[in-house]
Design brief:
It is a single chain. By secondary structure, this protein is mostly helical. The longest helix is centred in the last third of the chain and has 19 residues. It has 31 helices and no strands.
C-alpha cells in the first residue's frame, strides 16, 4: 500500500520504455516536465528519461545533458533534483563517486523541512491480541503475511527514489551507510521509518562493517513515535549476531519499558509498543543476553505471542533451568493433532534440544510416543532430532526410537537411526540401517546417513566403498556430506578425492559453502589446497552460504578467516 502522499503514475514511464523514436520521446518528456507542477510526476518523468537512455544508448549524451541542466536549475524543487542525481547515477553506475552521494545527502537536508503529516504515513492501527490469528491459521503464518504487508508500505514520496539509489550503489556499503545515516536523521517520522527498513535490507544482504548503522538504528529505539521504535527493534532482531553493538541500547530500551508499563509489557494492547518490546527482547535473546528472560517467561506463561519467545528461547542455555520447565508446560499444552499448532510444536522441540536440560526428556519422549501413535511423522522427526541432544540420558525413549527404524515415512527412518546412534552410541546396531540408507534412491536419506557415518568415524569403515561411489552423485547436497564422511572415516588417504569434491561443489553452488568450510576446518593442514577458494570467498560483497542468512554468512566468513590464518602459518 502506497502512502497517501503519493499519486498514481500516468503515462510518462511508457515514453522511456516503449517509444522507439528517441528524439520524439525526448521532446515529449522535456515538455511534460515544464508543464507538470507536481514533484511526484516530475520524479517519474526524470525516471522515464533514464529508462530511455538505458534502452537507447545513442541518446545517453542528450539525456545526461538534460540531467545536468535540470540539476543546476535553482528553481527546480529539491525532490526533482534528487531524482536527477539518482537517475544520472543509474545511467552511469561506474561513474558514481563520493560527490554523487554528497550531492544526494545535501538535497536530503534541504528536504528535511518538508515533513509529511502523520496521517499520511502512519500504519493503520490493529488490535494486538491472539484473536487476530483468524481462521485457525498458525500464528507464524499470520505474522508473516502481516510483515509482507507492512514491508510493502511506503511512508515517504521519495522512498522509491532512494531505493533506486541504493540499488545502484549496490555493494558500496560505506557510501550507502553515509546515505542511510542522513535518511535516519530526518525529522520526518515517515522518512525515518522507511530508512530503518532500508537499513535492514543493506545489513541482511551485503557484507561489511555495519557497526555504525546498527548504532544509528538503535538510536531510534527511543523515537517519540512508537511505530518507528518498533521498526528499529524489528530491524535489530533481524540482524542477529551483528546487532552486538546495540546490546546496551536494547537492554536499556527493555528496562525502560518495564519501568513505564510493568512486567507484562510483552502483552501490551498497543500494537506498536508490543512489537517494539517483543522485537527488542528477541534481539537481546539472540545475543545470549539473559535480560530477555523475564519477558520470555511472561510469553510462555500467558500464551500471548508465545511462538515468538519460543523462537529465541534456545539461544539462552545459561537460563535453561528457568526456561525448560516453562517450555515443557507450553509443549504439553499444545494439541499435536491440530495442524495450526504443528509449527509451534517443532519450535518447542527445537528450543528444548538447544537448551539440553534433562528435565525436558520426559515431555519430548511423550511427544514422540503420541506423534508415532497418530502418524504425525513431521512431529516425530522433530522429537527424534531433539532427543539426539541428550545422548544416553534419553535412553527411556529407546523402545519408541527402535520401533521407528523401520517406519514407512521417508523422513522418520533416517531420523530414528540418527537418534539411536546418539542415544546408544553402538555402531554395530546402526551400521546396517545406515548402509541401507546409503543405497536409497531418496537423496536426503543418503545425506542423513552420511552425516551419522561421519560421527561414527573409523568404526564405519565398511561404508567406504559406497561413499567413494557417491562422490560422483549428480547432486552436490549428496556429494559434500559423503565427502565429509569419507574424510572422517578414511582420513588422509582420501584427501585428494575429498578436496576435489568439496571445492567443485562449492564452486557449483555457493549455498553449500557452510558445509564445505566446516569439513575443511576439520581436515586441518590437509585443506591447504583450498586456500585460494577460501580467499576468493571473502572477496564476495554479498551475503552467501545457506539461505544467504546473516548467521550462516557470518559463520562462513569467521571460519574462512580462521582457516586462512591457520593454513597460511603452515608455510
Amino acid at each position: 500500500m502506497r502512502s497517501r502522499c503519493s499519486r498514481a503514475p500516468r503515462r510518462n514511464p511508457g515514453l522511456g520504455s516503449f517509444i522507439d523514436d528517441g528524439n520524439q520521446a525526448l521532446t515529449v518528456l522535456c515538455g511534460r516536465l515544464r508543464a507538470e507542477p507536481s514533484f511526484v510526476e516530475q520524479i517519474l518523468i526524470v525516471e522515464a528519461m533514464a529508462d530511455l537512455a538505458l534502452r537507447l544508448p545513442e541518446h545517453t549524451d542528450e539525456a545526461m545533458a538534460w540531467f545536468t541542466d535540470l540539476g543546476a536549475d535553482s528553481t527546480t524543487v529539491p525532490q526533482t533534483r534528487l531524482a536527477v542525481v539518482v537517475q544520472r547515477a543509474r545511467c552511469v553506475p561506474g561513474q558514481v563517486g563520493d560527490d554523487t552521494v554528497t550531492a544526494a545527502i545535501e538535497l536530503l537536508r534541504e528536504l528535511d523541512d518538508a515533513a509529511v503529516p502523520a496521517e499520511a504515513w502512519c500504519d493503520p492501527s490493529r488490535l494486538a491480541s491472539p484473536a487476530a490469528a483468524g481462521d485457525g491459521a498458525p500464528p507464524q503464518i499470520v505474522a508473516a503475511f502481516q510483515d509482507l504487508e507492512r514491508d510493502r508500505r511506503i511512508h515517504s514520496p521519495i522512498t522509491d527514489l532512494l531505493r533506486t539509489f541504493h540499488w545502484t550503489l549496490a555493494g558500496k556499503v560505506p557510501e550507502r551507510t553515509a546515505l542511510l545515516a542522513e535518511q535516519l536523521r530526518s525529522r520526518d517520522p515517515g522518512s525515518c521509518l522507511d530508512a530503518v527498513r532500508m537499513s535492514a535490507e543493506l545489513m541482511t544482504t551485503w557484507r561489511g562493517d555495519h557497526t555504525r548503522l546498527v548504532m544509528l538504528v538503535a538510536e531510534h529505539l527511543n523515537a517519540s513515535r512508537d511505530q518507528v521504535a518498533a521498526e528499529a527493534a524489528a530491524t535489530l532482531d533481524s540482524c542477529h549476531v551483528i546487532a552486538e553493538p546495540a546490546r546496551g541500547a536494547l537492554a536499556a530500551h527493555v528496562a525502560a519499558q518495564y519501568a513505564t508499563y510493568g512486567p507484562d509489557v510483552w502483552r501490551a494492547p498497543q500494537p506498536h509498543l508490543r512489537r517494539s518490546h517483543q522485537g527488542a527482547v528477541q534481539a537481546l535473546a539472540r545475543l545470549g543476553d539473559v535480560r530477555a528472560v523475564p519477558s520470555i517467561l511472561t510469553a510462555l506463561d500467558s500464551g500471548d505471542d508465545a511462538w515468538r519467545a519460543v523462537k529465541v528461547a534456545g539461544t539462552l542455555p545459561q537460563a535453561a533451568d528457568q526456561l525448560a520447565p516453562h517450555l515443557c508446560d507450553h509443549l504439553r499444552g499444545l494439541d499435536l493433532t491440530q495442524p495450526a499448532w504443528e509449527m509451534s510444536v517443532h519450535s518447542d522441540l527445537s528450543a528444548l534440544a538447544a537448551l539440553a536440560d534433562g528435565s525436558a526428556i520426559s515431555v519430548i519422549s511423550e511427544t514422540l510416543d503420541m506423534a508415532a501413535s497418530h502418524g504425525l511423522w513431521p512431529i516425530a522427526c522433530s522429537a527424534l532430532e531433539a532427543l539426539k541432544a541428550f545422548g544416553s540420558s534419553a535412553a527411556p525413549a529407546l523402545p519408541t526410537i527402535r520401533s521407528l527404524i523401520t517406519a514407512s515415512d521417508a523422513h522418520v527412518r533416517p531420523a530414528a537411526v540418527a537418534a539411536l546412534w546418539a542415544v546408544v552410541g553402538d555402531s554395530d546396531e546402526v551400521i546396517q540401517p545406515l548402509l541401507d540408507l546409503l543405497h536409497d534412491p531418496i537423496t536426503f536419506r543418503i545425506t542423513k546417513a552420511a552425516d551419522v557415518l561421519a560421527e561414527i568415524g573409523l568404526p564405519a569403515h565398511v561404508a567406504l566403498p559406497r561413499l567413494r561411489d557417491l562422490l560422483s552423485h549428480r547432486y552436490e547436497w549428496v556429494r559434500v556430506p559423503c565427502a565429509a564422511a569419507l574424510w572422517e572415516i578414511g582420513g588422509a588417504p582420501e584427501t585428494p578425492a575429498v578436496l576435489d569434491t568439496l571445492l567443485q561443489a562449492w564452486e557449483q553452488n555457493p549455498a553449500i559453502a557452510n558445509r564445505v568450510v566446516a569439513c575443511l576446518d576439520r581436515m586441518g593442514p590437509a585443506a591447504r589446497p583450498a586456500l585460494p577458494q577460501l580467499r576468493s570467498e571473502l572477496l564476495h560483497p554479498q551475503r552467501r552460504g545457506r539461505f544467504n542468512s546473516i548467521d550462516n554468512d557470518e559463520d562462513l566468513q569467521r571460519i574462512s578467516r580462521a582457516l586462512i590464518d591457520r593454513l597460511r602459518d603452515l608455510r
